[in-house]
Amino acid sequence: MKSPLQSAIKNLWLSKWSTLMAIVSIGVCFFIVTAVLIGLYNLDIFSKKLSSKATIVIYIKNEIPETEIYQFINKLKETGFFTKIQYISKEDALKEMQNIIEPSMIELIGYNPLSNTVEAFIKDEKIEKIEEITQNIKKSDLVEDVYYPSKIIYALKTLKITLWNLGVIIFCFLSLAILFIIYATVKNHYWKKTEEIEILKLLGATPSYIRYPFITEGGILGLLGSLLATVSIVIIYFFLHSKNVIEFLPAITQLVFPFEILYILPCIGLLLGVASSFVALGKIKYQ
Amino acid sequence: MISFLGVYKYYDSTPVLQNISFKIEKGELIFITGPSGAGKTTLLRLIFGSERPDEGEIRVGDFELSKIRQSEIPYLRRFVTFVFQDFRLRQDLTVYENVALPLFILGQKEKDIKQKVYDTLKNIGLRHRADSLVRTLSGGEQQRVAIARAVITNPRIILADEPTGNLDPDTSKEVMTLFRNVNAMGCTVVIATHNPELFQSTPYRVIHLKEGKFLQ
């Protein structure tokens, strides 16, 4: 007599071609899902990096004395929205400008046309509120105008939402596909063993005794499929980080690989396998 | 041990059993007889929990079968075992494996199982066929394996539906001897048969059924 694990392995081996097809299909689904998730993860990191460079430039009215400007900066710091706030006087701004534009050109104007400015670097988690923050700053009597890179932030936000939604759809669709493949394989094996199961029921086997081998079978299918995907992704990761590929695509070094998937993915595979086989078996009825 | 009280069973509004009431005491060997379609198999199926009565009460040991839940049926089937006319053996397994199956279901240890199975096979005269595949056995031998499988867990009740239906007269006698031996060890045995040779000139009680009614 065999343990549930031995019975499951025997069942899978007896229909090895359908088992192999199921594992490969599950592996492909897991691979796509994981690739999409890694893509989204990297997109998230990329958008955060870009966002952290988002600066609000506040142009201060000319007549405002520096003491009031510093008080205004302190108030901005108290809001907790910014990582860094720096004051650039119009004299310092002019000096910087002289490094870019011919000094004779500035002399032609005859006076310093620049304003005192405050540059505020917004925190990542507050980037969604940038518009609201800007509007509040504009309300101050000290402020002439406020500039922030609204179009870039909007484009980034739209891209992130679109890709995220697309990722969620792919994730749900392929997760359902994985569930269905395991469900169909286990159900098929269960039907093939109807006669044996009927004998077990007549001999007093409990539903859990009957279910164990099939649930183990589903777990094995999910686990092997997810391991196949994990191994493929790791191989591709190392291939992408090989010397030749980096020379050809230097940006690939920026790709962040979440190594947690090495254990999370097999766990998800195992859980999905167990869950879908449990559903496939349904309620065991005695007659 | 077994009691029926005013039991009715219908298949598609056709009555199969009508107002059946009787009691079977612990340690009895009893024959249920009658022509084909009399309701013998239905009566055994009711005791085994395969069917539910449409009316009336059936009590088997501590189990109230008119109210039994699906989850209790496996435990009823450890208390009551069944020997079928068509044996219901796993043809892909050996004699040993078939007889050991109920013990595996009960989660007994391999060492204990081995001892019990060999002892049981010895008692039914099939020790030498332990490693043979069941499909290589004759009908009589397969029925003996089925009886061995039914008795190995020491059930309180054994039900047998036409246990000699597929067997020649000599083999039938051997099988009946096995049932008498099992009964002698204190097990209640209920045998459904339409073969009068099995119960004529025996001291055992006989219940006669005709068209689903009790004729005793």
Order of strands, main sheet of chain A, comes to: 2-3-1-4
Strand content bin of chain B: 25-35%
What string, H for helix and E for strand, traces the elements of chain A in order?
HHEHEHHEHEHHHHH
Category from helices, strands and their pairing of chain A: alpha+beta
Structural class of chain B, by secondary structure, is alpha/beta
Shape of chain A: elongated
Oligomer: heterodimer
Distance between the termini of chain A: 25 Å
Element order of chain B: H for helix, E for strand: EEEHEEHEHHHEHEEE
Strand ordering within the main sheet of chain B: 6-7-8-3-9-10
| Main β sheet profile of chain B | 6 strands, mixed
As residue ranges, the low-confidence spans of chain A are none
**Gross geometry of chain B:** globular
Give the strand content of chain A: 5-15%
Low-confidence stretches of chain B: none
Overall pLDDT of chain B: 88
Number of helices of chain B: 6
Helix content of chain A: over 70%
Protein described:
The complex is a heterodimer of chains A (287) and B (216). Chain A is an alpha+beta fold and 287 residues long. Chain A is built from eleven helices and four strands; from the N terminus they run ααβαβααβαβααααα. In chain A, strands 2-3-1-4 form a four-stranded antiparallel β-sheet. Chain B is α/β, with parallel strands linked by helices and 216 residues long. Chain B starts with a strand and ends with a strand. In chain B, the strands form two sheets. Chain B has a six-stranded mixed β-sheet, with helices on both faces. In chain B, strands 2-1-4-5 form a four-stranded antiparallel β-sheet, covered by helices on one side.
